[in-house]
Amino acid sequence: MSAVVERDLHVPTGTWGLLISGAWLVSLPFRFLAGSLIVRYSRHVLAAAYFVSAVALIGTANAPNKAMVSLALALYASANGVMNVGVNAAGIHYEKRTNTQILGNLHAGFSLGGAVSTLVVGALLSLGWTATSLSLLLAGFLAFCVLAFRNLVSDVAEDVPQQKLALIDRDLFAIPGFMTVALIGAIAAAAEAGMYLWTIIYMRDEFSLEGIASVAGTAAFFAAMAVGRFGFNPVVRRLGRLRSLQYSGVLIAAAMTVGLLTNSAALAALSFLVVGLGCAIAVPVSISLLGALAPDRSAAVASFGTALISIALVASPLIVGTLAGLISLRVALGMIAVCGALCALLSYRVRERAAG
Known about the structure:
Elements: H1 2-8, H2 13-41, H3 43-62, H4 66-98, H5 103-126, H6 131-148, H7 178-207, H8 211-214, H9 216-231, H10 233-239, H11 241-261, H12 265-293, H13 298-326, H14 329-332, H15 334-355
């Protein structure tokens, strides 16, 4: 729906990037606080987040100007951040309790939903649906989520020390390797955000595609992430978490480079699919590794990890949008290849230090 609102309000690409970055920036305090809020208020926090998200989506689609769009985007980003913390905290708690990696499957649900919703939205746009109609459909789905996931975080407080409402659990900083792994997750998230925020616009502008054809690359990316996240557990068990992160970074960098150098829409879509396989591993494995480094602080780890990822999400559209306005979107999306290379390098350095 992002691309539809950008088009309908005639917002320049660079300005749209600033609006999205501003929204994520406003959401940062809520993401840092989400862990403490979930420990204290449990499922009521998630219910409120789903409700605010629904209202914000409708507001974004019906906003008459850029100022109102900014407000609606900020509300949505804040509520979305709380939901992300809740899901990751529940996953970390489950992994500790059962000694089974589940975060990949949880993130796969996001990716599968992204692939399906992208195709559905593309088809509905081809049928003449407006942004308002789409927002009402998505708001109805979020209302369903309030009921379906109302007990998701009910048990998270069991393995988290009771604490005052605080932005950051400072004890996390003392854990060896914690900040580097968190940084890897943030960089990977910046690459992922660049893919799902900009590739529809890229396919539309660079290859003159419209409707469902313009979403093919993004849908392929989401589908690859879903398949990869449902199926990567055997790979991670065989290679180990850090080596898996290293290889995923290499895959992202190589595939994105090919996708941006080609003048074939089909090859670009295929390359985005391969980027999706790389991104499938990076974020959930980094969060899982953070949880293993601090097993008694599920909500605090999820909150800090999600907030740091959100900082990357602030930088990603800002960098891509600015470079797109100054040079071209094709060049700007090269940031995703750079992110992949950085993930590979940092993962290698952590492995070397651990071996030493």
